[in-house]
Design brief:
The longest helix is centred in the last third of the chain and has 23 residues. The protein has 13 helices and six strands. With 302 residues, it is α/β, with parallel strands linked by helices. Strands 1, 2, 3, 4, 5 and 6 form a six-stranded mixed beta sheet that branches. It is globular, with a radius of gyration of 22 Å.
Amino acid sequence: MVIQGVSTRKVTEVTEILCGTSFSKSTVSALCKQLDPAVEGFKHRPLETEYPFLIVDALYMKARERGAVRSKGMLIATGINREGKREVLGFQTGDGESYETWSEFFSELKVRGLRGVDLVTSDNHGGLVKAIKEQFCGVMWQRCQTHFSRNVLDKVPKMHRSNIHTKLTDLYNSPCLEDAYERRDSLAKELELLAPKAAIKLDEGFHDVTAIFNLPEAYRKRLRTSNSIERLNEEIRRRERVIRIFPNEDSINRLIGTLLIEQHEKWISGKAYFNMDNYFDEKEKARKDAEVVRQKRITQVA
C-alpha cells in the first residue's frame, strides 16, 4: 500500500479494519525496510548491453536531515537498449544537481557497464551539460525542445506567444535539417522585430535542439525532448505528494527506487520502444546528410 501511494496513517486504518490489528507508523516503516536489498541490488546491477539513447533528468523532494527539512535532488537516467526497449538505468539522491553530482552519477553508470551511447537528451542545466560533455566525449547532446521553447517564449510578449510557439513546433517538425534552417531564418527575422532577446535565444540554442537531425527520422520525435522521463517523474510525484516530507534520504531511495523497479520491469517485458533493426546503417546516412547541410551553410555564410 505504501508503494502504491497510500499514507502510513491510512495503512494503519485499513489494516485495523481488515485484520483487527493496528500497525503503527514505525512498524510500517520497519516492514518497508525489507525492500532495501532489492532496491540496492537494482541500483548497482551490471549494465550488460549497449544503450544508444540516454535520457536524464532530476526532480526534487523534501526530507528531514540534521533536525531540519531540506531539499533533495534525485538524478534519474533512462536508456534505450540495442533491442529498442527502455530501461531505468540508475538513480542517485543527493543535495542537488551540480556538475560534481552529475559527473559522479555518470561515472558510476559507466563503471556498471554503460556504453555505446550515441545521443543524450536533457534540459540545459549548466552542471548537467558540462558533465555530459566531459563524461560522454564525442556523443551528441540533444537539448530538450520543450524546455527550449519555454526559454524562448519567456522573452516573447504574451499576446504573441501562441503564434511563436506554433512556429517553433513547425521548426522542430521539419522533415530535414535544411528545412529547419530555413524555418529558423524566417522565425528569427520575425523575432528580431518582435522580441530581440528571443531571437538571440533562438540563435544560441538552434544547433543544440537540432542535433536530433543526425538520427533517422523514425527516431527523432521521441528523442527530441525529455518528455518520456518527465512522464515517469509525474508518476513519482503522484506517490511523493502523499508523503510530502520524507523522514530521511534512505526513505526516498526505498520508495522511489521500488517505483523505478516496477517501471523498469514493465518496460522490458512490454513492447519495444523502437525498431532498431536498421538503426546503425540509417544513422550513418542521416549523419552524412546533416553534415552536408551544415557545410553548405558554412560556405554560404563565408
